[in-house]
């Protein structure tokens, strides 16, 4: 159905959270006339909103004695109740509000799940009230939300009244972080559209707010702060939907959280923080490491967005060579493509700039002067350039925002300004840039971070444009999953394994040596032993019958009832591939360098499944040691297409067999002849980890 229009503009369809963020009327339950009390501060903040406000306090002079009295006067025109009552009274207050037709509530108070057994009981009562009445609840334990353009300030922090309206929505796990980011954006000259602190998230979650923002015309970019994830698939769906229409920049807390490792190698590597970041990026979000980078990224993305691309070309124009070098160095470190400008572009620039400046990209203007707009226009018109970053100090010679406007470059592609100078000069330039719709950031490194965010956003949407690889049917194999069984599964999935023999006694082992030819690997074969090397269960380089006799004796002494005799693989570079069922996000896939490198250095790439062949092949780009896989010192060269086949086959196997908890291939060796799985473990849900 086509949405209704007003004055030729589409009107977003109403969402489930409109009663919270666009209420027809507001009621403060537990209002107060005592300055400083929560009920008084909230009543004062909400007075600015252009809708009826009803104050409820049985002991307050001039206030309604009860929720019912207030709603009788309002005649059903109250959508939002702000509850400033103790935790003990919250559940009943919610029921009273819902009975009177109130559709949403904000609970700022603490004393719930974070407060021990008594608080947990109060939280259970609140959750039950929400489930039974259908009222939507933000909180508890949050400092609220605010929409400056509407003057809807449901916050007990007085400073929010000074915030300017703008294009950035902040969705934060913490009410304190919500406010902190809003004030930082204000100092950066960027206004906010909606700022929400989720608090305990008893009802309304991050995913709910992100879904609401999909149709919010006032929001052009979203700053997302995450501490924990309750429903991983719902979050990823929301981020995918939202990032398709506006950028999402995510800051995930928990880099040092190592409290709960899974027992397998794969689980130990796929920690909560790392997995959350990886799958958010896969869903289209731009990832940042701290609040400074978050502000820089959303500032950059508040302007024109790059088109989806695997490697957008960025040109840097600088008024001073030293800062320009800082920008270029940071961009190249971040993997941003800085293409060399064409001969025609350089010739056009040379007509304006002195001959001693560097003009191939970055473009050093020496000192911006007359004709600077022609330089910007020429660079922006280069066919290899998709975005332009311009840095300069504030000088009386050139007004950078005005020059960019005169060049026309910002009408065609994203332009990001970086300006430094006296504070009042930078503020004036920022105001002029904002008027022109051009994002402005202060500082060379900050400018580079903003540009990298533009590029990451374009790369993320490009990756999302590819269809996922369908899972092939389960081959019908069943456990117990010792190494032979696991490798038979890999064979059926199209993953190459070495020739091998299952041997039940010494004679069969000797026959296998003769049939396969040396050297061979001889391994303990037992589905209950996941890590054979730890119990002395692997003997490599067995060539002779005497070697085989000694190997079998050793394995029998270690408890082996069967052994695996397998052809030794050619030398190469070892990888690890693992698929497991993450408790939050479901099936996830991991790729890393094999051995201790992946475990100690955490040099891994993680994705949810299913995924496309191109996305699977691109996982190798996340690895810091990826150069080892492409002919390093005469070594083998990885075929990304072959790697993608292995990754999608292993990952998708979990989708078609819910009984399999995880599959680990370690090592998956890259040889001159391609990839070969040297060891494999399959774990079912019934297996005692």
Computed structural class: alpha/beta
Low-confidence stretches: 1-13, 257-268
Mean pLDDT: 91
Classify the helix fraction into a percent range.
25-40%
CATH topology of the largest domain: Rossmann fold
Which strands sit side by side, in order, in the main sheet? Answer: 9-8-11-10-12-13-14
Strand content: 15-25%
CATH architecture of the largest domain: 3-Layer(aba) Sandwich
What value does the Rg take, in angstroms?
Answer: 30 Å
Major beta sheet summary: 7 strands, mixed
The total count of strands amounts to 29
Q: Given this structure, which CATH class of the largest domain is correct?
A: Alpha Beta
CATH level-4 homologous superfamily of the largest domain: Succinyl-CoA synthetase domains
Q: What is the rounded distance between the termini?
A: 51 Å
Counting DSSP H or I runs of 4 or more residues, the number of helices is 23
Shape label: flat
The total domain count is: 5
Descriptive account of the structure:
With 689 residues, this protein is α/β, with parallel strands linked by helices. The chain has five domains: 19-141, NAD(P)-binding Rossmann-like Domain (Rossmann fold), CATH 3.40.50; 143-302, 3-Layer(aba) Sandwich (Rossmann fold); 307-464, Succinyl-CoA synthetase domains (Rossmann fold); 499-567, 2-Layer Sandwich (Dna Ligase, domain 1), CATH 3.30.1490.20; 573-684, ATP-grasp fold, B domain (D-amino Acid Aminotransferase, Chain A, domain 1, 2-Layer Sandwich), CATH 3.30.470.20. Helix content is 36%, strand content 21%. It has 23 helices and 29 strands. The strands form six sheets. The protein has a seven-stranded mixed sheet with strand order 9-8-11-10-12-13-14, with helices on both faces. Strands 24, 25, 26, 27, 28 and 29 form a six-stranded antiparallel sheet that branches. Helix 7 (206-214) packs parallel to helix 8 (232-243), helix 12 (321-333) runs parallel beside helix 17 and helix 15 (400-407) packs parallel to helix 16. Mean pLDDT is 91; it is low at 1-13 and 257-268.
